[in-house]
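Entry, Tuesday afternoon. Goal for today is a structural model of the target with coenzyme A bound, before we commit to ordering more compound. Inputs were pasted exactly as handed over by J.K., no edits. I checked the ligand SMILES twice against the vendor sheet because last time a stereocentre got dropped in transcription.
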Amino acid sequence: MVRRASSLDWTHVSRVCADCGAGGAPVEEGEREKFAEHWIGPYRELRPDWAWVAERDRAVVGYLTGAPDTLAFEKERRRVFFPGPDSRDFFPQAVRLRLWTEHPAHLMLNVIADYRGFGAGAALLRAFFAELRRADAASVHLFCGPGSAGFFERMAFRAEAVVSPAPGLILRAMTRPVEGASV
Ligand SMILES: CC(C)(COP(=O)(O)OP(=O)(O)OC[C@H]1O[C@@H](n2cnc3c(N)ncnc32)[C@H](O)[C@@H]1OP(=O)(O)O)[C@@H](O)C(=O)NCCC(=O)NCCS
């Protein structure tokens, strides 16, 4: 079951984030809290209405966070959180600016390993796209590693930019219009 996140869900969202953060695998024990706060805090504080959770057996097993207005979100995130660099910064500034303006919405999505392959990721995306249609958003972007690129291609996203910040590591910026292929 997928539903919009409530204020009670954020600790669970942070747990799932830390369980998936190392390329789909758990982040090291001592890093979990800082890692989850970096990636989740801005959504919890700045765009709490743009978050959904997937539940199974009454536990949160996946989430989607996002924003319909990435340029404004990024300005607020920098002003409020003074965030350190992360994998998004491997993409040149010009690419990020193009994504923020031409594909203004963005999302992040994680499902715990044991619950992948049961449709939770697709259901979370469907909920997000339904809300984007209501908000008249035209196009979406995201950043992903090699493990999830196939999923997003299946969901009609296309690679807009690719970087390889280290040997063997490939990161993609992917985009898709809100209208068109169904999720
Ligand atoms: C990527 C992820 C969110 C997908 O969630 P999921 O719940 O496993 O996906 P679903 O079960 O909804 O899959 C929907 C469809 O995509 C396909 N699919 C899922 N993962 C895939 C992959 N890695 N490559 C290709 N296809 C994939 C499924 O087979 C299914 O296809 P179908 O409709 O033909 O049956 C999940 O695997 C995950 O959290 N991965 C690790 C973290 C990550 O990389 N997150 C993305 C960062 S933004």
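The chain has a mean pLDDT of 96.
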